[in-house]
Every structure is written in structure tokens, then in C-alpha cells.
Amino acid sequence: MSIAEQMGRVLQRTAHSTNIKERLDFSCALFGPDGGLVSNAPHIPVHLGSMQEAVKFQIDHRKGQFKKGSVILSNHPKAGGSHLPDLTVITPVFIDSEPAPVFFVANRGHHADIGGLTPGSMPPHSKKLTEEGAVFESFDIVLNNEFQEEAVTAQLMEPAKYPGCSGTRNLPDNLADLKAQIAANQKGISLVQDVINLYSLPVVQAYMKHIQTNAELSVRDLLKQVALKYNGESLIAEDFMDDGSRIALVVNIDALTGSALFDFSYSEKQVMGNCNAPKSITKSAVMYCLRCMVGYDIPLNQGCLAPITIKLTPGSILNPTDQAAVVGGNVQTSQRVVDVILRAFGVAASSQGCMNNITLGDETWGYYETVGGGAGAGPYWHGRPGVHSHMTNTRITDAEILESRYPILLNRFGLRAGSGGGGKYWGGDGMVREYVFRRGMTLCMLTERRVFWPRGLNGGSPGARGFNLLLSNSEGGLLSRLASKSSVQVQAGDIFCLYTPGGGGYGAPPGSTIVPPGEDDSSRTRRKYERLMAMKTNGVQYPADLETFLQ
Fold it and tell me: Which residues form the Hydantoinase B/oxoprolinase domain (predicted)?
């Protein structure tokens, strides 16, 4: 873990973009000669599980043929990618006495723009992979120790050949961050070689295997306990995306061996949109949840999945075709998969279920951030308010950095009081973030939980849904509600108001009767009032038909 952490520090210090340097939207890890994850720094869960698939793909694709002085760049979903803005840099680790790599080091960083339909490369309405930016399957970004700047530049500009698309809008940031990613891997190689020189290769590889075995045994013990708790019955749960797409899970546990089948085959078919999640994403979600449920410290690694079989239907929302749009699957569907797994095991109410992705920019720049919300409550804890939950673990950009580098002001940023679901343990509150635009630009949002509430568990109430509002300065203060997935042109003086969902509550308080919102007149009235209070911001002009708007 120390090796991966030091790789991360090098990447943060040497990167140029706000997204990697300040928001810390990256992950670093160490992999065995078979591509299996050995150890990682506590970075982004959705990256770490799927990066293992990326390394294994390259081993199979290149038939184990790797050269010293070479570095590979990849982001294609079929190659273990999460979505196209996440560029993965993989470097084999050689030592003098071995002709083949003895380990691999890799890192994945989210680039704020790599081309595509909209600035920020997170187009809300993409329907094909080619609309989401530049694609790298198995690209030699370094050959014979030389950075292939001309070739990678050409590939980053490639999306411009598709109708309505642009090449990258910020090439200098792309190149600087890629060089930082390469440098981070080189730091990892140096540290691995130091450890091998100190202890010898057989000893190091043996202990790496012990780490994976420890994780495997921990998960098997967990599954045996769960099987005993539920008398061997199947664990079943489902939830829905805002478009109605079903995410369903049946877990069958073998109590004798501590192994389990995670069957997602009842989930929705592939959608004509971008909430399709590559199969590596579901593997990441399963690995993350098992690691959380173990309950004590073990490194997140390949051993967590050793007792697990995952069943995914080809052509489904969780195992789409190679050319399906996937930019939302990584950041939205992954969260729903986690909520479904934790619900099936009965360990936590639903979180905000969304990364609240906001992208801004024009043809010369792109900016991207995710905004936290409420975490779900559990049997012994209240949900945390205003956090990046589950599959994301990034920072929010500081107001001072955002305002100094981009033509944006932050009018308000804080907790959305009362948005967490009630119960014996309360769900965490969501957040409010208001952006004032200093000049015209494109605003895009990829959000969820705007239709379905984050569900409570064991009698707990659901958290409040999120919503997105635009106060148009150019239209006399018209307040409009934006769809969960929108792309709009904003003008100077316009205000975008983002209200993120709260987390679900857990358990009903003794002697109380909590009614989920929407089930009777009093709760509907209360919900309207809460939404009205949430919209009261400085300078907002409410529409005349406010009652209609609230409905």
C-alpha cells in the first residue's frame, strides 16, 4: 500500500489539471504478474477494481509480450476501462534476472476533457462510445523510453471526425497529466525494485500472494456468517435508475465453502443512452462492497473476488456491447449497483446514489467536478452528510481555486438541511451548490435520484430526491427545472442551483410511524414546503405559477 500511496503523491504533485491536482480524481495500484490487484492506495473504488481488468486485458491482448522502456495507455471499456475520460497508464516492472514482467504498476486519472460532444467529455445524451471522446485500446504512449507526443496528440484530436464532436479542448493539460501519470508509475517501479533488492523476488512475490490469500479467507468467513444468518436463503434486491431501468441481484451462498454467486442477469437490457456500465464496473462494485462488509482492515485486492462468481447477461445495462455509450454507467449505475448489493445483504440504506457530475466549458476549455450528498444509515450509525459516497472518493474543488481559474462564482455551498431520511438512524443530508456564470458557456449535468428516492431500510424513510434548477438572468429571472441529464447554454449572470439527494434512513424509531414521502396528503404538502425553502436563494425570482412548478 505504501508503494501505491507514494505513486499517488508523485501524481498529485506533478499533474497540471485541477481535476487531478486538486480534486484527486485518480487511483494508483500494484498488480501481480498475472494482472491481479495486489495492493492499492485508498483512492477511487470504481477505478481500483476495474483497473485489474485493464491490466489483465493487456496481458492477454499482447500475449505476454512486453518491452522494457514501454508504457501502455488504455481507456476502452472492453479493455477494462470505466469510461473514456479515465485514462489508464500501465507500466510493466522488469528486473535484470527475469525476461518477463514480475509486476505491473498502473494508475488511472480522470481527464477533464478528451473531446466528444460536449466540453468536459461527459455528454448527457451520448448514445455511442465515439461521441464520448478519444479512444485508446492498447496504445504505446512510451516506446524505447521516448514519449510519443505526436501520436498521442493525433489520437486525442481523433473525435473531431465524428459529427457534432470535437477533439480535446485542452491538449496541454492532457499531455502534462499523462506525463505525470508516467512519472508516478516510474516511482512505483523504483520502489518495487528496492523491495526486491532488499528481500529477493521469491520472498516479495510470496508475501504479495499472502496478501491476496488473506483477503480471500476474510471474504469466505464473511459469506459463511451471512449464510448462517439467513439460513441459506437467497438474498434478493432491486432498484431502479431514473429512466426506469432495473438493477436486480440474486445472491446464492454456499455455506460450506464460503463462496457465492452474484446473479445480475435479471437486470435491464442495454439502454439507448450512456448509463450502460462496463462489466468491470460491476466487478468493482462487488469487490468494494465485500471489502466494506468484512469489517476490518484488509487491502482491496484480487483475493476479495476469489470466492465470487458474477453472472452478467451480454447486451445488458451491466454488460453492454463494445460500442455502447458508457460515460454515465461509471458514475451513476455503479452507485445503484452498490445500493442494491448492500440492500441485499441488509447492511445499509441507499446512499444518494449519484455522483452529481457537473461539466462546464466551451470550445477552448472544459471543467469537471462531482458533488457529494447524503450517505445511507445503517444498523448502528447515522449516514454522513455531504460526502462523496461509495464508488467515488474525490474532493470537491475549493471555491478559491474554482473562482480564480474559471469564469465562475460560487454563490452558495453547504448542507441541504433535512434531506436525509428519518429513522432510528438518520440518513445523511445532501448538499446545495450554486454556480454564477460570469460569461456564456455550456453547462452539462449527469445526475440521478431525481425520480426515485434513495430508499430507507428496515422501516427507515427514504432520503429526499435531488433536483437541478436554472435561474436565467437573460429571461427576466425565469426559474426552470432541468432534467437529470441536461446540456444547456448559459449566459453571464445565470445561476445554476444543484440540490443533491439525501441518504436513506435505517429502522423506525420505537413507537413511531414514519410515512415515506408521496404516500399521503400531509407528506406531499411537507415535501413541497421543504422544496420551496430549499429554493429560497438571494435574488431568485419565483415563477408566478409556483404551485404548478412544485408539482
Answer: 1-509
